[in-house]
Amino acid sequence: MNARTQAIPDPDTRASMPATPRRSRLRRLPPLIGLLLLAGAGAGGNWYWQVGQYIESTDNAYVAGDISVLSSRIEGDVARILVADNQMVEAGQPLIELEREDWQARRDQAAAALAEAEANIGTLAAQVAQARAQVASAEAGVAEAEAERVRAAADAGRAGTLASGGYGTREAVDRTTAARRKAEASVAAAQAGLASARGAIPVLEAQSHAAIARRDAARATLALAESNLEHTVIRAPFAGIAGNRAAQPGQHVRAGQSLIAVAPAADRLYVTANFKETQLRRIREGQPVELSVDAGGALHGTVRSLAPATGAQFSLLPPENATGNFTKIVQRVPVRIALDPGQELGRLRPGLSVEAEVDTRDDPHAPRSLFGAAAAMIRGH
């Protein structure tokens, strides 16, 4: 056998022998991975240094809206329901109509009472005018009686003078004296009639004031009756979506009973995000917010305002830390976030869960993505 000929190992021996490494790949791969890891770590650290540490986020957020729960202002039976569930409605649109016959009758009764009160005022005004005319007539009567008394007194004086000189009779003296006394009595009667006529005027004026007060009360009753008649139609307070309808045709409802609700349109919705108290150090009004809706979609918003107290303070039983054992709990403060205009909001509904991220940087328009932050760092150098 040739000594230079190599022995061919058997298959079992070849299987147990180590495979020949691909030197070129194995020598290039570890440095490449290291460089990639180093670049990724640098980019991530740069992003956190420039962006990440300034982002305050929470998943304790939800879409909110000022939902109006409408109730009946009066008692009555439901005559008609004019909208369906989940129907778009306009401001002032009728939603539910109650039976109006009883309230129409009350309105007519109040109108009749007002007409009667106004007629009574007219009657008293005429009586006051008549009383003033009677006063003027009584004053003229007093003047006439006074003139008659003066004439009678003069006649009596002349008759007495003539009788004392022997030129007159005793009968003439008695007659003129009686006429003088009668004139004096007429003056007293005229003066009494004048006082009576004058005294009637304040009474009639007081009755006129009372009639005016009754007229005003009747007018207020009519206004209330007309208002109740108007409230037989329940209208939408604003444009939105009708829902949660509890009324049924023919149902007897009482005042204050909830019948239907109107949710605001999508353009009137906002987001309430409950941030921890430790996250509020840098949150300010006007900062941009990125919103991720659990139902799908991303939105942009702006911090509008912060609540004046923590959510716990507005609860039914606020905590009282001065009593009992104290356990410190991180509190949350509701932050109202306005949705920026020009976005597709048709799928939003009050109550949907949202994740909110507030950008608290001094320049909120700076690049926010990983590559944008890296590019900004490169340009900065």
Would you kindly provide a written description of the structure presented here, covering whatever features stand out?
- The chain crosses the membrane at residues 32-49.
- Residues 269-353 form the p-hydroxybenzoic acid efflux pump subunit AaeA-like beta-barrel domain.
- Keywords: Coiled coil, Membrane, Transmembrane, Transmembrane helix.
- InterPro entries: AaeA-lik-b-barrel, MdtA-like_BSH, MFP.
- This protein is an alpha+beta fold and 381 residues long.
- It is 45% helix and 21% strand.
- It starts with 10 loop residues before the first helix and ends with a helix.
- Residues 1-8 have low confidence and may be disordered.
Termini separation (Å)?
73 Å
Q: Give, in spatial order, the strands making up the sheet with the most strands.
A: 1-10-13-12-11-14
Q: Could you tell me the number of beta strands?
A: 14
Quickly count the helices. Answer: 5
The 3D shape can be described as: elongated
**H/E topology pattern:** HHEEEEEHHEEEEEEEEEH
Helix content: 40-55%
Please state the structural category: alpha+beta
Average predicted local confidence, pLDDT: 82
Strand coverage percent: 15-25%
Q: Which segments are poorly predicted (pLDDT under 50) over 5 or more consecutive residues?
A: 1-8
